[in-house]
Design a protein that fits this description.
Elements (H helix, E strand, L loop, with lengths): L2 H8 L3 H17 L4 E5 L2 E6 L2 E9 L2 E6 L20 E5 L7 H13 L18
Antiparallel strand pairs: 1-2, 2-3, 3-4, 4-5
């Protein structure tokens, strides 16, 4: 695991730390070809420079976000905005994490992608990869 992501996880309160560590472990195991780093102050995994999945501490707990998750057709992923294709879920305990479901989402994250990497060049327009 990326050392900066480990530091991020270590800074969290005990329950949040456990959630972050489990998420990072599962994401790393499923996205073996992904680059990962701290991006905009939280852990994010990228495929070919395109953000795929990340998590962050927020008021509601640890938010796991998939940049293209709106197209996963998954009931438990919440789609908040209309402009972008992201979807997310909040976790407050490791027992909240359905690992089978998470692994399925990570599989979809590799095959269903919108091009966030080039969104600035396209003046805010998203294109499906």
């Amino acid at each position: 695991m990326n050392a900066d992501i480990q530091k991020y996880n270590e800074k969290q309160a005990s329950t949040d730390k456990e959630v972050c560590e489990l998420l990072a472990k599962i994401i790393d195991s499923k996205l073996t070809k992904a680059e990962n780093k701290i991006w905009h102050a939280h852990p994010v995994w990228f495929l070919n420079g395109n953000p795929i999945v990340g998590y962050s501490k927020q008021k509601g707990g640890i938010r796991l976000m998939f940049w293209s998750g709106a197209d996963f057709d998954e009931v438990n992923l919440n789609i908040l905005g209309k402009k972008f294709k992201d979807a997310s879920i909040f976790y407050n305990n490791v027992s909240d994490i359905n690992t089978t479901e998470l692994k399925r989402w990570l599989e979809k994250a590799q095959s269903i992608q919108w091009d966030y990497k080039n969104i600035v060049q396209r003046k805010g327009q998203l294109v499906k990869i």
